[in-house]
Amino acid sequence: MKHSRKLVFICNGSDCKKAGAKNLYKELKRMTAEPDLKGSCKFIKTKCMDMCKTAPNVIVGDHFCKNTTAEKVLIQIKKS
Ligand code: FES
């Protein structure tokens, strides 16, 4: 059986934090607690990804979300 839980890496470096990474994380947690998405992703906080100019940065699978919002990340989670 294929394991379908998606890995979502959220940068928690100082620039991304300033750009709202903490709220982004909280928002994503809340959004993915809905019954249709429950247990579908695993969030991992990372150190600086060295892409601070485009903060906040999130990686969903092999897709890099730059300057992102919780809504954009959610769309990517549903797509991948
Ligand atoms: S702080 Fe997030 S990429 Fe540097």
TrEMBL record:
It holds the Pfam family 2Fe-2S_thioredx. CDD domains: TRX_Fd_family. InterPro entries: Thioredoxin-like_sf (IPR036249). Gene3D superfamilies: Glutaredoxin. This is Thioredoxin-like protein. It comes from Algoriphagus chordae.
